[in-house]
Amino acid sequence: MISGRTLGACTLLTSPVAMKLLNGDGTVRGKAALREYFLRGIQAFPDLHFDLIDTLWGTETIVVYYFNNVRGNKTAEVMLMNPAGKIRRVWANYDQ
């Protein structure tokens, strides 16, 4: 859901999946670490795809709500934007 063109310089992503894939605290820091996180996810789940359910807009945030075919669940990613419209921070939230 996130591309390199939309990321700000100090991007953070916090996710329970990141905790499992990277064996860390669940927070991925910076573009290089995000690239590694997404690469590991694609390698672990080569058939991964997402079906968009909805997008919601706030004054500084966007929420992308989608279905994840691998996990078989719904995910909501809350994205905090900087003044230039780049993503500064992302929180991934999952149903069971």
What would your notes on this structure say?
The structure is a single chain. The chain has 2 helices and 6 strands. The protein has 96 residues and is an alpha+beta fold. The protein has a single domain, classed as Nuclear Transport Factor 2, Chain: A (Roll). The protein starts with 6 loop residues before the first strand and ends with a strand. The mean pLDDT is 86.
Please name the defining characteristics of this protein.
96 residues; alpha+beta; globular; six-stranded mixed β-sheet; Nuclear Transport Factor 2, Chain: A
CATH architectural arrangement: Roll
* Separation, N- and C-terminal Cα atoms: 20 Å
- Spatially, the strands of the biggest sheet line up as 2-1-6-5-4-3
Low-confidence stretches: none
Radius of gyration: 13 Å
What is the average of the pLDDT values? 86
Oligomer: single chain
| CATH topology category name | Nuclear Transport Factor 2, Chain: A
Helix proportion range:
10-25%
Q: Which CATH class?
A: Alpha Beta
Short description:
With 96 residues, the chain is of the alpha+beta class. It has helices spanning 16-22, 31-44, and strands at residues 7-14, 27-29, 50-57, 61-68, 73-81, 87-94.
Please specify the SSE layout and strand pairing:
Layout (H helix, E strand, L loop, with lengths): L6 E8 L1 H7 L4 E3 L1 H14 L5 E8 L3 E8 L4 E9 L5 E8 L2
